[in-house]
Amino acid sequence: MALMELTLIPMGTDTTSCSPYIARALDICAQHKNISYRLNPMGTVLEGNLSDLYQCLEAMQEALFEDGVQRVYTVCKIDDRRDKYQSMDQRVQSVEEKQHD
Predict the structure, then answer these.
(1) Alpha helices in 7-87 (DSSP H)
(2) Does the predicted TM-score (pTM) go above 0.70?
(3) By the 8 A CB rule, do 46 and 56 touch?
(4) Are residues 3 and 44 in contact, defined by beta-carbon separation less than 8 angstroms?
């Protein structure tokens, strides 16, 4: 399973607010049943098979274009670990267990 962290930035809109566009993109993401996702304040983390993640990202971008956005700037990071499966929560927990108080 791979993780993809992405930030979609709609450009060429009538507002500085991104939340309606991000909500629309997340609606598209929710339709991809093989993908888990978690919204955070600066982006969204998706978990799934790499090819499914790519397809989901494309669908999210296309949805914004269909809604009239003229330009979508996307920042994407991928962690494709193949030696063992770790969920999003397990990866965070592993780091937190190693933190010093």
Answers:
(1) 19-30, 50-66
(2) yes
(3) yes
(4) no
